[in-house]
Design a protein that fits this description.
The protein is of the alpha/beta class and 256 residues long. The protein has helices at 55-62, 77-80, 87-93, 102-111, 113-116, 178-181, 206-216, 232-235, and strands at 2-7, 37-42, 45-49, 69-71, 96-100, 128-132, 139-140, 146-154, 157-164, 167-170, 189-193, 220-224, 243-245, 251-253.
Length: 256
């Protein structure tokens, strides 16, 4: 199984427009962060987590040719506004299964009303097959590609984290409820939300993220959804062994 982090930045991306801070002006490519999404590849299947607002750029950068499914964590703009850019894949391969929780589907149908309630002719529309996921109810996307949705809390919004065998991806959260912690144990790899060093009301910050890593004890952890407060090289010294800042283009494979 192979995981490619297509984007690791917060909702503004990094660099942030108009900012001249040390990170935004950095020459280190690890400080250039598109909005968060992940590509999962296994046994000939390719799955995307979140159609970020940078999805087109991300797809072109990795040479994406095909998708078998899209998993949505939640419906904030930086995670969903690239949905229209699945159309070229639809043209070649037909409708695409999209998986999200019930709350997210209500938002998707409202935001993309033109897709689900078309009222005019002309212009291509994304072709999606809607699937609703539920906390703790696993489903299969192909041989050896079992997925378990795990509910986490982003301020007050329920967000879906996803576990694939021994890998889990949990972005945009401020709390992992006890029942969800139990579904995230025994991991080889955990990719976890961590916005910045200082506390934030709707995201994990460094101290809180490291507390969850210590609680769950994955073999490796990568921190994502990173704001421009974090400079990769400088702030790597703040991390314990087995924990790293994620960066765009990072590839994580079984056996690494």
């Amino acid at each position: 199984m192979k995981f490619t982090l297509l984007g690791t930045g917060t909702s503004t991306g990094v660099p942030s427009i108009g900012c001249e801070c040390e990170t935004c002006t950095s020459d280190d490519p690890r400080d250039k962060r598109l909005r968060v999404s992940v590509l999962v590849e296994h046994a000939g299947r390719t799955v995307l987590i979140d159609t970020s607002s940078d999805f087109r750029q991300q797809a072109l950068r990795v040479g994406l040719k095909h998708l078998d499914a899209v998993l949505i964590t939640h419906c904030h703009a930086d995670h969903i506004f690239g949905l229209d850019d699945i159309r070229p894949l639809n043209f070649r391969h037909g409708a695409l299964g999209v998986y999200a929780n019930e709350r997210a589907w209500a938002d998707i149908r409202r935001i993309f009303k033109y897709v689900f309630e078309p009222t005019y002719f002309g212009g291509g529309l994304p072709q999606v097959v809607a699937h609703t996921v539920e906390h703790g109810a696993p489903f299969c996307l192909g041989p050896g590609l079992d997925v378990t949705p795990v509910e986490v809390i982003h301020g007050r919004l329920p967000v879906t984290a996803y576990r694939f065998n021994d890998f889990a991806y949990a972005t945009d959260l401020s709390e992992i409820p006890p029942r969800s912690l139990e579904l995230l144990r025994g991991l080889e790899v955990l990719v976890l939300d961590c916005l910045r060093i200082t506390p934030h009301p709707t995201h994990l910050w460094l101290e809180r993220a490291l507390e969850y890593v210590a609680e769950l004890r994955p073999r490796r952890a990568y921190l994502t959804h990173i704001a421009h407060d974090i400079k990769h090289a400088r702030d790597s010294a703040l991390l314990p062994d087995g924990v790293e800042w994620a960066y765009d283009g990072l590839v994580i494979s079984d056996g690494d």
